[in-house]
Amino acid sequence: MIKVTFIEPTGNTRILETPPSGDMMHLALANGVAGILGECGGTCGCGTCQVHLDEQTLKRIPPAADDEADMLSLSDYLTPASRLACQIKLTPELDGVIAKVPEVQG
Ligand code: FES
């Protein structure tokens, strides 16, 4: 099991334990994490699953691919820590991740 912490836009913290399979967006939707919309179903086509990851995790996981970076570049909430949750695989390297959900997706 790996531990994934989401900080919802209100500041509410959700700590989830999950087997290392699937992706962060589907984990968030399955558990009703506020602020993650996932409108395209995880095809990197909507940008409504943005999260801001903690620095330690960003160093442990592969960088955004071109299609993810292109989609993120359209966001008003882009930061150096921005990633699309649908593109983040739930691997053992993700254990302990803290993902802050922006106030608004888009
Ligand atoms: S769910 Fe659409 S880009 Fe992630």
Automatic annotation (TrEMBL):
Database matches in Gene3D superfamilies: 3.10.20.30
A Gene Ontology biological process term: P450-containing electron transport chain
Pfam family, one: Fer2
GO MF term list: 2 iron, 2 sulfur cluster binding; electron transfer activity; metal ion binding
Cofactor requirement: [2Fe-2S] cluster
Keywords (A to Z) from UniProt: 2Fe-2S, Iron, Iron-sulfur, Metal-binding
Claim: Iron-sulfur is one of the keywords in the record: yes
Domain 2Fe-2S ferredoxin-type: 2-105
The keyword S-adenosyl-L-methionine is assigned to this record: no
Annotated family: Belongs to the adrenodoxin/putidaredoxin family.
Name the record gives this protein: Putative ferredoxin, 2fe-2s fdii electron transport iron-sulfur protein
Originating organism: Mesorhizobium plurifarium
